[in-house]
Amino acid sequence: MRPAWALLGLCCLIWRVTGGPSGDFCSQIHNSGVKPGFPKTIKTNDPGVLRAARHTVERFNNCSNDIFLFKESHVNSAMVQVRAPVQVGAPVQIVKGLKYMLDLEIGRTMCKKTRHPSLDKCDFQTNHTLKQTFGCYSEVWVIPWLHEIDVPVLHCH
């Protein structure tokens, strides 16, 4: 029984030191009306959606052999889902994060990868022969209190 109490004490200490999940995240979960495990449509201009879209293009740019950077041009639709709820007691659940599911368009910019500029300062290609856009579906998993963001699914065509 002592190891269980030690583990519980360690968890409480970590919670106290890290402050637990950020207030923004907790209020987002509490006020969103999202039930754990069920995706919900979310506005395409939601700050979380826009951050997820940016992580999507960063992953695309890291995987692409193109000399130019791409950036998000339009989010067509977005859904959010509370990830992997763990049932602790009847009313208590531990949330492991959010999963954003995005349908978006990305376009080639005039910025070259070798210069590593901020994507916010990159304009889209105006040269018709260099212009290129892709329609993409991505899933972005976010655990804000651990500062973890992963894009395990990215399909562009």
Explain what you see.
The chain has helices at residues 2-18, 23-32, 47-63; strands at 40-41, 68-82, 86-87, 93-94, 98-112, 133-143, 148-156. The model is unreliable at 1-34 (pLDDT under 50). The protein has a single domain (20-156), classed as Roll (Nuclear Transport Factor 2, Chain: A), CATH 3.10.450.10. It is an alpha+beta fold and 157 residues long. The strands form two sheets. The protein has a five-stranded antiparallel sheet. The protein is elongated. The protein is 28% helix and 36% strand. β3 (86-87) and β4 (93-94) form a beta hairpin. The longest helix is centred in the N-terminal third of the chain and has 17 residues, at 2-18.
List the keywords.
7 strands; 157 residues; disordered N terminus; 3 helices; alpha+beta; Nuclear Transport Factor 2, Chain: A; single chain; two-stranded antiparallel sheet
List the helices and strands and how they pair.
Layout: H1 2-18, H2 23-32, E1 40-41, H3 47-63, E2 68-82, E3 86-87, E4 93-94, E5 98-112, E6 133-143, E7 148-156
Antiparallel strand pairs: 1-2, 2-5, 3-4, 5-6, 6-7
Report the radius of gyration as a whole number of Å: 19 Å
- Going by helix content, strand content and strand pairing, the class is alpha+beta
Overall strand count: 7
The major pleated sheet works out as: 5 strands, antiparallel
Number of helices: 3
Shape summary: elongated
State the strand order across the main sheet.
1-2-5-6-7
| Element string (H = helix, E = strand) | HHEHEEEEEE
**CATH topology (fold) name:** Nuclear Transport Factor 2, Chain: A
Q: How much strand?
A: 35-45%
Question: What is the CATH architecture descriptor?
Answer: Roll
